[in-house]
Records
---
Amino acid sequence: MAAALAAREAGVSDVLLLERDQHLGGILNQCIHPGFGLHHFKEELTGPQYADRFARRVREDHGIEVSLCSFVVKLTKDRELSYLRPGALEEVKAGAVILATGCRERTREMIPIPGSRPAGVYPAGLAQKMVNMEGWIPGTEAVIVGSGDIGLIMARRMALEGVKVKAVVEIQKSSRGLVRNVVQCLEDFGIPLYFQHRIAMIRGRDRVERVDVVKVDDQFRDLPGSGFSIDCDTVLVSVGLIPENELLEMAGARLDPKANTPVAEKVNLTSIPGVFACGNACKVYDLVDWVTRDSELAGRMAADYLGAGARA
Amino acid sequence: MTYDVVIVGAGVTGASIARELSRYRLKVLVLEKEAEPAFGVSKSNSGIIHAGTQNPPTSLKGWLCVEGNRLMREEIAPDLGLNFVQCGQLVVIFDEADRPGLEKIKKEGEELGVRGLKLVDRAWLDANEPELGPEVKAALLVPSAGIVSPYRYVYALIENAVKNGVELRTLAKVTAIARVQKGGFYVEASGRVYETRFLVNAAGLYADEISAMAGAPTFRITPRKGEEYLLDKKREHMARRIIFPMPTAESKGILVIKTSDGNPMIGPTASDTQDKEDLSTTDEGLAEVLRETRRLMPTVSKSDIIAYFSGLRPVSGKDFIVRCEESAPGLVNAAGIQSPGLTAAPAIAVMVAGILKERGLALAPKEQFHRLRRRPAHLFQVPLEETRRLIEKDPAYGDIVCRCELVSAQEVRDAIKRGARTLDGVKFRTRAQAGRCHGGFCTTRIMKIMQEELGLSALEITKRGPGSELIKDDRK
Ligand SMILES: Cc1cc2nc3c(=O)[nH]c(=O)nc-3n(C[C@H](O)[C@H](O)[C@H](O)COP(=O)(O)OP(=O)(O)OC[C@H]3O[C@@H](n4cnc5c(N)ncnc54)[C@H](O)[C@@H]3O)c2cc1C
Ligand SMILES: Cc1cc2nc3c(=O)[nH]c(=O)nc-3n(C[C@H](O)[C@H](O)[C@H](O)COP(=O)(O)OP(=O)(O)OC[C@H]3O[C@@H](n4cnc5c(N)ncnc54)[C@H](O)[C@@H]3O)c2cc1C
């Protein structure tokens, strides 16, 4: 939304905003905790409030056509897009394309955690969506893998819903998350945080029953004799985000194979002229305020590109 | 009411037998303990339709495999609309000294009736399988091998059998069997008793227990575990065929496998276990699979892995057990169906029908047998133009639920209409939740569609049946 609005302000007359979901706002909709906008708006908002400030401006702007439930399935290097929506397969050609497709979560399978594959193992973001958007409480006793911000915030969220959070298990020596989150989400709730530990086994046939935890050394090798078990029915996996850049890949843009981010000399650029990537699709951000700042820049870069194209 | 035949187990063996018997004027019932068919061994295997090579030429499983392969290619796949791909396989050697071994496999395969076998040298391999490792010296090319989606195969068989009048009861675990004086059996499953003239035991890992319940404790099943690791679709073209090493006495070895959905797979391991429910994967299994497959294909990397699972082969000795039992007249066992059971199933079914006929069951063909099944539409299998036609016909094909695998709301609803009752059932039929994000984005949406279609509360939705509920409390 920030990119669309900025492009309009920079003089682009006709913007099409495609969103797969039934509403605008992306991941912000499920982040009902405060902590958004301290830099951009100089006040503390929740995720949905932050998103709504942009959604309102987008709706009022007649130069932005919003198409919801619209899933982009194809992008070519010549900026031809195909998207599906209920009732139609649409094809459009754009002067410039901005990809703001966000991230998906890394999963249990990518670490990978051995053991059985019962119900009760969820990516933390899915659990967040269940709790915050559907009112569904996924378990009664939980262990959280990974101490990044999402893991920390979900530890607190589950504790607030009366779920017993028995541990946060982190393989590194320290947390990747914000210090304020470690304090506010774990220490205030008495949730133990185990650094340099990993889950060695998930147990349970139909539903999670227990996890085996083991301490590791600096090379991530298991320390013999350090293992212990925790009874639980839920494991939330929060082990990082990966930019969703499958469309860029399809168009033939160069991607960093490890981070799945576009390879280019400047933020928001891709190796294809006229195709931009911003927000979490460009790189994983901590704070939404910086997503907004850089996405506005992306909108202006696209406007510049269109201007240059028109003159050429 | 008395059934002509009760089949215990809705895996590929039971489903094939059900479909075969549905050609005839018979009352047939299938009892399955799980929430859906194909939740036993038949869901977790390599999905290979073997050619028949790598089996002793005198074995039952050898010739049933060759015949099953033929039936799949010529009848089952076209009739039931299966996505069978005849990609072929290679058995490779790392040492010239193994060449006589390859020749032996070729000769034994030919004795079993496998066609088109050919030894190929390194130059051929360089041209046709460029990612093979430098250690590979030569190979046996086996063109009739192929791949299929194992669970969609079972669903197709069961759907077609039910269309032809077979009854299916799920969540029906057989716990007791008694002989009827005048012949036949009473079969008790989940609190109900069914009477039948003939009993077919296709209970996979539990076939020994069923046979004993019916009065024939003649064999034991020992599970042999196999761990498999699926790779990202981005690696789809690393191998064009299924790549095998030379087999050992215990197994066909650890392979580079193609799957019908595009993701390559590596595995399986082979280790005996005592626990019929132990489907865990292990650090050791992963290390072994990576080590072995890297000899075949050095470009395989741990970071390509997107999913993994274990399956248990129901092993009893070296061969299948397909026979009637003198100590329990009316019982036919289709047991010990280890690999290549997925391939052999249609041939096992014909053999079981033959045994039943010998034992006095009249096989009178139905006036109308619906041989064909319409293939469900899957967006991920069709080109965009076909997608456009589907959406124009039915708008919900444009309502995308699963973004990683491109699955629409209409496909999820269709899967439920065809029998999916669990999240895994939806996944196996449609691929929704089977991609990179493992359901991170689409699980709640699928749960809501299941609520609408099945009239369930959120608390009742399970991953794979009772005990695997997804959520514990609904605060809305
Ligand atoms: C749990 C959590 C807690 C956070 N907490 C804070 C916090 O306290 N403070 C803070 O400042 N920041 C926080 N952040 C970070 C911040 O919210 C995000 O970095 C930011 O919202 C990302 O915005 P985005 O637009 O790049 O991505 P997203 O919000 O993910 O938006 C991407 C959009 O693209 C759509 N899309 C993707 N592919 C397609 C396609 N093919 N076709 C059509 N549409 C598509 C998606 O549906 C989605 O709506 C948090 C993030 C998370 C996940
Ligand atoms: C790792 C691995 C890889 C393999 N790869 C291949 C391959 O590539 N190609 C190939 O041809 N074969 C392969 N196989 C072998 C193949 O998977 C099996 O031979 C086949 O699936 C066996 O099917 P089944 O129907 O006999 O057993 P199952 O699928 O287990 O079916 C038995 C059914 O009976 C039900 N049941 C059990 N007890 C009861 C009860 N008391 N009451 C009611 N129902 C009951 C079970 O729930 C189950 O659904 C592989 C096997 C493994 C483990």
---
Amino acid sequence: MVEVALKEVTKRFGEVLAADNITLKVNNGEFFTFLGPSGCGKTTTLRIIAGLEFPDSGKLFFDDDDVTNLPTYKRNTGMVFQNYALWPHMSVFDNVAYGLKIRKISKEEAKERVQKVLNLVNLAGLENRYPTQLSGGQQQRVALARALVIEPKVLLFDEPLSNLDAKLRLRMREEIKDLQKRLKITTIYVTHDQEEAMVISDRIAIQNKGKILQVGTPTEIYNRPQSLFVATFIGGGSLLEGIADKVGEKIQVKINNSAIQGTPSSDEQRIKEGDKVAVVLRPENFVLEKPRSTSNQLRGIVEWTAFVGSRTDVRINMNERRLLIHAPPDIMIPVGKEVTFYISQEDTIILPMEEVS
Amino acid sequence: MEVRKTWSRLRRELDLMTGTQTLLSVFILILFLIAPLFLMVEEAFVYKGEASLKWFFDIVGDAEFVSFESRGGRLFEVHRNIMYIWGLDHGILLNTLLVAVVVTVFCCFIGVSVALIMARYKFRGKEALRILLLVPLLATPFVNAYVIGKLFKPTGGLVNFLFFDVLHLLPWRIDIDGLFGIALAQTLSYYPIVYLNVFATLMNIDPSLEEQAENLGSKGFRLFRSVTLPLSLPGLAAGAIIVFIFSMEDLGAPIGFLGARANPLSRKLVSYQIYSSFAEALAGGISPRTYALAVIMLIISVIGFVAVKQYVSLKSYAMLSRGGRWSPRVRKPPLKYGCVIYLFLISLVFAASMPQIGTVLLATTNWATSGTLPTEFTTKYLNSLATNPDVTRAIINSLMYSGAAIMIMVLVGASIAYVVARRDIPGRSLLDVFATIPVAVPGIALAVGYFLFFSRNFRGTLLDPLTDPVLLLIFAYSVRRLPFTSRAIFAGLQQIDVSLEEASLNIGAKRSTTFLRIVLPMIVSNIVGGGILSFVYSMSEVSTSSTLGALREDRMPITFFISQIVYGVAAVGAVSIGAALCVLLMSIQILAMVISNLILKQRVAFLGV
Ligand SMILES: Nc1ncnc2c1ncn2[C@@H]1O[C@H](COP(=O)(O)OP(=O)(O)OP(=O)(O)O)[C@@H](O)[C@H]1O
Ligand SMILES: [Mg+2]
């Protein structure tokens, strides 16, 4: 188990920057996730850590060891591939035992360790099956067992759940999380599913076009996105454009002729008076009664409502700007009625305007 | 910076195994393909120590080689109730090109017709015909042409006996011999190459393309000309260039005809000229004019091959528009067409299997000496395969050479396929090209190159063909058939997801371990398939066997031995023993096909670009 550090890692495929000057540190025993849209370079970054791809520049450290140029077979990482990459000509036992054979571990010990790890992933009894005779979930566990059995320094997952059906996906992600907590292996996980990332990770790195935009705990990322891309990629919400009016502890934003006060999300004070800014309002942060905290008061006309079980979605037209609000499920609001609603200034996220593609 | 990056990438990519694989392949390709051919080309352009086109001018200026007026021969001339169809002698070089063009045109015509019928119609007995149509691919080197020569003898030939004497269908006896006879023999044995290539493209054409055209009102020949033919051109071009190359370098038909009929016109071909210059080689070496002849052949085939390959890769659009329903358009022909189809296919199958049937008859009866028809069965020729020491030695020789060649081919073929498919080193596409190009190198040109290069630079060693041609034969087989093995293995590698290898590397296995434990087991059927195919081709290889193999009697391979028998110079005498050897070759080939089909569940790869 190690700490993994990337220092200014850059990788280019022709014109495409798959990893753009990435510097970050994954702590010992941490569950760390790369999250980003398709093609943003998550897999490439993971493969660089695995040693299956080599950076054009920059360095990679496992603890204090510079492993940048170490071939993958000397890194002792355990990777679980998206398609599992089980060897079709080997039984489950042989697939899992392969890494131990390579390490010249005695037959008896290997057998014991394979048994143990198969128990761990709930596969005991299937040793003699071949990969084609297993269900998707079982294949997934074999791939996991194969990576775990060598007691890797780092466990790597590349969208391991994307080939499973929805239900199994939920179960497997809990299993993976539990296992990781028990074994305390430094784990790096790649996914494009934000919910999966939030549930499973200690910390998340949001990647776009090769760049790491923000690293933080799920709560930080959700509540304090530092860029518009992160704010819109993680979690839903309505977006209002405006001009920064007063900048201080709080920022006041002028939207048409109303004003909204909010907290700047980024640590650095990037917003100046007169700048174009975006106000991100999460639907679940709205309330219909005036809260005790300092809050913004807004008014608008109910355009439609939809009961979705645990809540009622309400869309509000506020001077031709649409806002989505999560209201309590039992509420009854007639369409066409004008309502007043509130959002605390703490939850009002204000970010510099940027091009979001 | 760039240099350092390339260097560090190269160091990573060139681990011990990749390095060994690359070096081995490059070494063998250079020593046994590039260097000999290069030296031969160089020598052909040198006269008295200076660069010169003398040898080429010699050839072009000599009526013996190029003559626009006929220098002899008979074409559709009738004398004393015999129509002579021999072809006209326009000089050795022009003859060769003419024969190759004629054979290619015939093969394209027959091949396309057969492919269209087989791809678009269904009728009773189609499966049986599908197999019978491939009979000509069974190797009966030399003897096939001998049989045709024998059948078309004006007196005593079975064809004339049947159609003139018995059925009275012919106004005269016909005498097919010489260049035309050779073209006929080649057409009959090569048309399946065009047929198979065109058939494969036809099966890949999206049916909706033709349906669309039909929907717009196009049908019959118009549909064929405007849609079907253009779409199947890549297959046609691929088949055609191979037929052309095969025809140019073929030695089997001229020698077979010479054995049957001794018409000197059959000698007037480049391949035969080069062959006979190996007889002089023992005495004093080969004349640079022969190099120039070989170089002309080499250049024509390589340019043709490369052009076609380029064209085919540009035109592979036929496969692109897949989607929707995907069943080939097959339908029952109307009765009238049905009869025509049967008549055409059955006569074709019959005509094209004549050589194979004749070979079996020669081997199992007294037909060689009995005249028009055989009169009694005998097993003595087949027995002699085991009892006649000369015959047995030739068999054992060929088995050993082909066996050794297989090992080299698999080793080099797998190495090249792996490096090309998986590793990112500079020049790997070049490696790919050089692993494919042997298809386009005429065997006799390679033989000349070998003779020149190794007898000059390795005098007295085991690589000197005058000391012992064995090693050279083995490497010639290996290099010539390398494309089949490496293509087969490459196809296997493309089926394997790279992540299966990466998983192994990631777990801690070195590249070599990964190759042995993960990659090899998964492509073993491709290796065996490619290996079997190459083995068969090596056993029946003609060009280098009959040239380099001629240099030492105790080293002769089967095919050279057959040529000697057919030519009438081998001490064993009767052509029947040559036929018996051909029966042996055919059996091996059938066995190999059965193994690939049944056990390995793969269709036998065929000759294509
Ligand atoms: N071997 C390669 N050669 C060329 N381009 C590549 C290669 N591998 C990745 N790329 C490119 O680099 C970019 C990042 O690819 P990568 O596979 O890392 O994305 P990803 O974030 O994993 O996407 P996905 O969610 O779709 O898996 C893409 O634009 C991709 O096309
Ligand atoms: Mg990916």
---
Amino acid sequence: MPNDHKPEIGSTIVIQKETFNAILSRLKEKGYETIGPRVKNDTLIYAPIEQMDDLPRGYITEQDAARFHLKHTGHSRYFDAIPGAQSWKQFLFPPRAELFALRKVNNLWEASTPETKTPSYAFIGVRACELAAIQIQDNIFMRSDFNDPIYRARRERVFILTVDCMYPAGTCFCVSMETGPRVKAGFDLNLTELEDVFLLTVGSEIARDLLKGIPFELASAFLLRNADQGLERAASQMGRKLDISNLPDLILNNLDHPHWQEVGARCLSCTNCTQVCPTCFCWDATDEMSLDGKETHRERVWDSCFNPGYSYQAGGNTRPTIRSRYRQWLSHKLGTWKQQNGTLGCVGCGRCITWCPAEIDLTKEIPMLQEEAR
Amino acid sequence: MVTQQIARPAAINTEHLLEPQWAEVTSITKEINDVSTYWLKFTDPAIQKAYTFEPGQFNMLYMPGFGESAISICSDSNDHSKIGHSVRFVGNVTNAIGRLKVGDVIGLRGPFGTYWPMKELEGKDVFISCGGIGLPPLRPAIYHILHNREKYGKVTLLYGARTPADLMYTNEFDDWRKANIDVQVTVDRGDSSWTGRVGVVPMWFYQFRFDSRKTAVLTCGPEIMIHFVIYEALARRIPLESIFVSMERNMKCGQGSCGHCQLGPYFICKDGPVFRFDAIQPFFNVEEF
Amino acid sequence: MSDVLQETFKELQKIPWFQELEKKHLEKLASVTALRHVRADEVLFHEGDKEDCLYIVLSGRIALEIFIPHRGKIRIYTVEPQDVFGWSSVTPVVHQRTAGATAVVDGLIACIDSEKLRKICEEDHDLGYMVMRRLANVVASRLLVTRLQLLDMFAHPESQNAK
Ligand SMILES: Cc1cc2nc3c(=O)[nH]c(=O)nc-3n(C[C@H](O)[C@H](O)[C@H](O)COP(=O)(O)OP(=O)(O)OC[C@H]3O[C@@H](n4cnc5c(N)ncnc54)[C@H](O)[C@@H]3O)c2cc1C
Ligand code: SF4
Ligand code: SF4
């Protein structure tokens, strides 16, 4: 095989698993910061990875409402562990971002914003639901009439390596949300992990170049069928499901439903669900001023519709009760989001279920509106 | 949406999120006890020249170290020499604005939002019904009518405040009346020295004859007042499509990104603040929405 | 019809809700009504006075006021042309004025003798229904005004948060 041989876009190749280390090194050589799932403090986070050994090989996660357990079962696969609380959102839409700094000179304010270098990330192991979430946030931050320069700069540079999900967790419902478990489009490289080999589907020119000279063969029909079967099995093993056929109407027609009161009484307004959700995008801007009042830093930080301060304005709080804040969250996520962006705001990743300390589970709350609405 | 945003707002930085343009306070008019009008001029003359807005739009005013507030533009959109903001001192940012002196600078981004459909209203009777700090966003609409008086039919301003001392812009009412605008004022409570009306804005509707097919109602003020104004307008068979409302919510960006100002599917900062009532009616009576 | 009655009849006819009345009913009403010119600052009645009339403002402006010891007179409502005041005189229970009324500017008011009004309404329930229906409207709208005033919708947010 000639050394500059490159696979075609859309083709699926098969590589030996150890070859993957070469791909990681090449990404680093090209200046990417390679980020992937890692085990830390008994949980799974997204952090820089140097090599395949950093991946959570042999682990799975057991997830249920208010329950997350990382377990080592000793299997031989690298990408089986369904992610924890963190998502890729924190890299494209950082929880804190300095917007500008100002210094008072005479009676005027001068910008003294430090030059920052925009990182180029390579995301290793983005799941179908997570890719869908990134695409949803693209619609939020890169609209025709508004461009978030921070998000856009990072998004334009990112390299996305997705993985097909073979072993969903107990809180997953991507099948219901039509986002997974199979990755469809929008990746640079998609990886399907079989027992002994990786299948890689090429999605971009950058990925093609990256693979130049790496030993590969086109995936055989047998291997492709193997992958399909794995994905079909995964689709049948979703831990949760949600009927979205009558959304958003079901919610919008039931804004006064007594069930909101019931959930409102259980919800702690802790904001966990919004912080772990890969699509939630609300933010606040804060100033930090020096003691002498001559310098100030303006930062953008994540906010949450569950924060009481979120809806304060002259005249009082628009949503003073937890009931109204929970309703805002869910009616946005699975309701008005559709009118705003054409899709629902939930991808079925299950994080908000796993990480809600009050075991509030949107796949159970929505049907409550459904039942009594009849 | 009913109304469109203007194409290229002059004072919005697309490279640096939230970074404002700077404007100098050229004068300050004390309106009432807790409201003053700040007259601003961009420090960069090119921006001052390029800056235009439509009646009903707002700016984000930035006080370094304190933050930003959405404040309606209350001045004449034909006057390109200065921009007016009537600010009510209620909290962190607005109280900081209250400490500004002539010659100080303030950050400004804008203009943002939808505006009163002055073009669409041509040929119609215009019934403006507002209360308290709801008058400033309507004043540019009134100025627009003054400049184009012949294009509008009967024009009525029904304006309410808490007490006579809380009425704003009273020194201009005579000019408005001279231009054949019927200015009617009411207060919630008065003393014996007040010879005007006592009662609430929505209750005075019965005094006016409406030609419901050619009347448009514009309203802004406390949300509860808006509710009753709309009930009265609907009772007089003014169609939903002829009622325009300016809404208010907490907002951080003005560009439909931060999420704060949502009302159902709308971002008040970009789909509003001015809405045609039929657009927001489904959410209007949902408590705490 | 006498001249006075004729004039009264004409004035009443201008009021939109009277236009719904049959002519004979309007005539009956006119027969128990007197027109009265009032001057600015003229006191029509005090709080606590015995009730005797229901009033309709034809022109001018009448202020309803309550005197609060140590705070003085508070103007709670002004009655504008075509609006009614003194409506409690038509109810069978309340017999004292619950607020005082003072003319703010010169004007003309129609004073309907409440006792006679009650009587003609008793005699002719069709007329009685129309009158009571109108009064129910007036009472409902006063109640709404009172509610909105109670809400103190323009209050400074700080003072509202303090509540
Ligand atoms: C489109 C639009 C146009 C507007 N036009 C005008 C205008 O022309 N003029 C004008 O004066 N205003 C206008 N406003 C309102 C103005 O934006 C707000 O009054 C202003 O943002 C308040 O900011 P602040 O920082 O001064 O007050 P904040 O400090 O934010 O306080 C506002 C209120 O909320 C309360 N509050 C805030 N946070 C909390 C908390 N955590 N807990 C308890 N209470 C809290 C405060 O006590 C206060 O009552 C407009 C708003 C919008 C959306
Ligand atoms: S709402 Fe919950 S399940 Fe849906 S995307 Fe957000 S965190 Fe995942
Ligand atoms: S729903 Fe659960 S996670 Fe979300 S704010 Fe309420 S208690 Fe917290």
